[in-house]
DNA sequence: GCCAACGTTGGC
DNA sequence: GCCAACGTTGGC
C-alpha cells in the first residue's frame, strides 16, 4: 500500500471545492509532468490514502486526508481543444495522459503548515520540502504520512 | 510581485 | 546531443 501527496493551488482548486463535489470526488486531470503523471497511470491504486496540500498560497499547508477513488484513466482534458491542457498529439486510441479519481476522506483537525513540516527532523527528506520540488502528485513514506496526521491532532498552543 | 528551480521545446 | 529560451511551479 502506497501513500501519496496531491498538491493544488487553492485559488485553482481547494479542499473546500473538493468537499463540495458529488461524492467529494474529482478527477485529478490536467497534470502534464511526466513523473507525476506516471504515478497516476502506473502506481496509484483505489483505496490508497493521500494528503491534500495547498501550495502557492500565503500559508502553504496540508489540509486534508483524501484517497485514491479510481485508477488512472485517460485524462479527458487532453482531447478538448478548448482546454488549456489540450494535447494535439493525443487520440482516443492512443491517450498520452491518465488521471486518477481523488476523494476527500476528512479534513485535518487543523492545517499542518509547511513551516511546521520544516521543523520536524524526521520529515527532512520529504519531497514537499525539497527545493524546487514541482511534483503535483508524489508518494510519501507511511511513517511520514502518519507523523503529519499526528501533528494535525496536536494543538500547538498546548 | 519577485525570483529561483525545474522540465520541455526547438534551433543548431 | 547540446543548450538557450521559455513556461510552469513554488516559496516568500
Structure description:
The chain is α+β, with helices and mostly antiparallel strands and 158 residues long. The chain has a single domain (3-151), classed as ph1033 like domains (ph1033 like fold, Roll). The chain is 21% helix and 31% strand. The protein contains four helices and six strands. Strands 2-5-4-3-1-6 form a six-stranded mixed β-sheet. The longest helix is centred in the C-terminal third of the chain and has 12 residues, at 142-153. The protein is globular, with a radius of gyration of 16 Å.
Secondary-structure topology with pairs:
Elements: E1 3-8, H1 15-20, E2 25-27, H2 34-43, E3 49-54, E4 61-74, E5 98-113, H3 114-118, E6 137-140, H4 142-153
Parallel strand pairs: 1-3
Antiparallel strand pairs: 1-6, 2-5, 3-4, 4-5
The protein binds a DNA duplex (12 and 12 nucleotides) through loops.
Measured by DSSP, the beta-strand proportion falls in: 25-35%
Measure the end-to-end span: 34 Å
- Report the mean per-residue pLDDT as an integer: 93
Strand order of the largest sheet: 2-5-4-3-1-6
- Rg (C-alpha, Å): 16 Å
* CATH second-level architecture: Roll
Order of helices and strands: EHEHEEEHEH
List unreliable stretches of 5+ residues: none
| Largest beta-sheet details | 6 strands, mixed
Which features would summarize this protein structure in a list?
DNA-binding; ph1033 like fold; globular; alpha+beta; 158 residues
In short:
The chain has helices at 15-20, 34-43, 114-118, 142-153; strands at residues 3-8, 25-27, 49-54, 61-74, 98-113, 137-140. The protein is α+β, with helices and mostly antiparallel strands. The chain has one domain (3-151): ph1033 like fold.
